[in-house]
Amino acid sequence: MNILVEHVSKRYGSHEALKGIDLRIEQGMFGLLGPNGAGKTTLLRILATLLRPTNGRVIIGSSDLSQRTQRKMVRAHLGYLPQELGFYPDLTGREFLDYMGLLKRLYDRNARRRQIAALLNIVNLAEHADRQIKTYSGGMKRRLGIAQALLGDPQVLVIDEPTTGLDPEERIRLRTLLTRLAEDRIVILSTHVVEDINQTCERLAVLDKGRLVFDGLTRQLIEEASGHTWQFLAAPNYTPPLDLSVISALSQRGGTLYHVVGPEPRGPVQDVQRLSPTLEDGYVWLRQGSKP
Ligand SMILES: Nc1ncnc2c1ncn2[C@@H]1O[C@H](COP(=O)(O)OP(=O)(O)OP(=O)(O)O)[C@@H](O)[C@H]1O
């Protein structure tokens, strides 16, 4: 199955949140990266059939989302985890999934229960399934959110900012889970955390102010910063010029060790070395280029 996004624009009043987006998304994990307000959630909500584009169209498999009957068909094969999923805190994890299963029209009680038990295992919540959700940690709630998105075994999973606020262990656990789920479906992961994409997605798109500023392989974006990523040592009172984006500045004996993206550093700096870029460098380099 493929997803085609053709010239999609979205206006909220006079504000254009998406400006003519074209994308092709294939099986596996696809990353959507961009700063706050770039239009990621708007695009995900369009893909999840919750919002209609002002212009353009989206085709999922053979269904055109501009047609009402086809949107309905797609909904049966699509799971969505929004940034803020409303839970009923007094329900247990299992009861919540049962309720969501009914909303997804899984009316056969035994089949629904079997599916929920399997999903609780997949997201590693089986032993907490009969506790009230109000006793869950942030990571457990996020995993429960993924379980509800997986009800009905959807071919497309759309996940908005899943790792926000999670500790490093939960973040890794969630990334591993999503990678596994992407083995036999499309998983679209939106985030502003570059490392989440680096660890999981072979392909990504970058949005900035509603425009598509990159669409390609993750390693291509890394490559873009090749020859523009530097390390150098500077005195404690040194201020980097505006054309250098500071990725990190590590205070140490003898000065501060800078890792920057931009033109070759000059001026009162020592030990200038070219570095192999990371995805963060590629992303920052791209954002430097897209600034007015
Ligand atoms: N319902 C709405 N009405 C008016 N403007 C909106 C609405 N939803 C989003 N916007 C605006 O559209 C732009 C894109 O918002 P969107 O939530 O899609 O961005 P985002 O990339 O998901 O940002 P974040 O990472 O902060 O969630 C923002 O400027 C936002 O303020």
TrEMBL record:
Keywords: ATP-binding, Nucleotide-binding, Transport. InterPro entries: AAA+_ATPase, ABC_transporter-like_ATP-bd, ABC_transporter-like_CS, P-loop_NTPase. PROSITE patterns: ABC_TRANSPORTER_1, ABC_TRANSPORTER_2. SMART domains: AAA (SM00382). Residues 3-234 form the ABC transporter domain. Pfam families: ABC_tran. SUPFAM superfamilies: P-loop containing nucleoside triphosphate hydrolases. One of its GO terms (molecular function) is ATP hydrolysis activity. It comes from the Bacteria. Belongs to the ABC transporter superfamily. This is ABC transporter related protein. The lineage of its organism: Bacteria, Bacillati, Chloroflexota, Ktedonobacteria, Ktedonobacterales.
